[in-house]
Specification:
Blueprint: E1 8-13, H1 17-28, E2 33-39, H2 42-52, E3 56-60, H3 68-78, E4 83-87, H4 91-103, E5 107-110, H5 123-132, H6 134-137, E6 160-165, H7 169-177, E7 187-191, H8 197-208, E8 212-215, E9 226-229, E10 236-241, E11 245-250, H9 262-272, E12 277-281, H10 290-298, E13 302-306, H11 316-322, E14 328-330, H12 332-343
Helix pairs in contact: 3-4, 4-8, 7-12, 9-10, 10-11
């Protein structure tokens, strides 16, 4: 007798009837997903959640009566449920989406433009992953940065840091980077995120961190105290050696289904600086970054992976760990301090600097 596997129950919330229909039709094509209801605003959604008990909610960012961010805050406080934000590609929409990811949304999807050939290609996979991560989302995710000892002195030793992340990466990166001092090692980051979202995310990180955070541009010199975020969808972020180390943006084909790809970034760092780097892989779906991190470790670089307990999605770090690409696996709240310890020229370094989170 075959054991019946329960379907993932989804509630679709959007003020546009067309968008509700489109999202529902796409998700309904997956045999493991069941659309249990639709709602035009948060008030309808609140009542639907009480009666339908969905496993996952797709939520529009901009809606009448109560915006998606306000409603998400209420969901996370009163009825923790995995939420995938559906955002317009506007400055207001992308900033709100970054805020949503900070306060507990599982992931974000950009609303399609009329020119898009493929509409919401990853939505079904993200919905099912969100349902699987339900227990993690129901746990408090905030971490408090360790206080700085009075004798803390940090001086970068000349190495660079490369960090890869995907689903859950917004909060994870804030946790790690908020511990960096203003003279942190040059740091490059590939975070899987739709185009235009990375600019808002870089600006948000820049406000929260002591270091200078920008979206990477081709030819930008790698400098201490600077953190460079790969532009979403546009290009892979690599490094190159000219007179000095610089950022290089490549519009090559997708790798592992991604551009930017964590694997591309890690392999570039391995080829150019080898052991003079620290590689870090954080929470995310899939396996992007595992092979690149393995090449970094083989080249003699220190490598760190986020552990299962603190990963929203233990996909990318799990594959890297199983490939023995991870030298040391740590809970999220210890990763920032470990990066500083490894890259501190001073013998007594290694304790995280004070957080600048508000």
């Amino acid at each position: 007798m075959n054991r019946q596997v329960s379907k993932t129950k989804v509630l679709v919330v959007d003020d546009s009837r067309t968008m509700r229909y489109l999202i529902s039709q796409i998700l309904a094509q997956d045999p493991d997903i069941e659309i249990v209801g639709q709602a035009a605003d948060p008030y309808e959604a609140r009542e639907a959640m009480k009666t339908l008990e969905p496993d996952v909610v797709t939520l529009d960012v901009e809606m009448p009566n109560m915006n998606g961010i306000e409603f998400l805050s209420k969901i996370m406080r009163l009825r923790p449920t995995p939420v995938i934000m559906i955002s317009n590609l506007t400055a207001r929409g992308t900033e709100a989406t970054i805020k949503a990811l900070e306060i507990g949304a599982f992931d974000c999807i950009a609303k399609p433009s009329s020119a898009d050939r493929e509409i919401f290609p990853d939505l079904a996979a993200k919905v099912k992953a969100a349902a699987s991560a339900r227990a993690q989302l129901m746990r408090p995710q905030r971490h408090v940065a360790a206080p700085t000892p009075r004798n803390f002195v940090y001086e970068p030793d000349g190495r660079i840091v490369a960090i890869g992340a995907s689903t859950g990466g917004v909060e994870a990166l804030i946790e790690v980077l908020s511990r960096f001092p203003d003279n942190c090692p040059p740091t490059i980051i590939t975070q899987h995120m739709p185009a235009t979202f990375t600019k808002s995310f870089a600006e948000r990180l820049d406000r929260l961190c002591a270091a200078k955070v920008t979206e990477a541009r081709d030819g930008a010199p790698l400098a201490k105290g600077h953190i460079y975020l790969a532009p979403g969808t546009v290009a892979h972020l690599e490094i190159a050696l000219g007179k000095n180390l610089i950022c290089r943006l490549s519009k090559a084909d997708l790798v592992n289904g991604h551009r930017p790809s964590v694997d591309v970034m890690f392999k570039s760092v391995s080829a150019v600086v080898g052991a003079q780097a620290v590689g870090v892989i954080l929470t995310g779906m899939g396996r992007d970054g595992a092979e690149g991190l393995a090449s970094l470790r083989k080249a003699g670089a220190n490598t760190i992976g986020q552990d299962r307990a603190t990963s929203l999605v233990y996909g990318m770090p799990r594959v890297a760990f199983e490939m023995k690409a991870v030298e040391r696996q740590l809970p999220l709240e210890k990763i920032g301090g470990e990066i500083l310890r490894l890259t501190n020229r001073n013998e007594e370094g290694g304790v995280a600097c004070r957080s600048r989170l508000p």
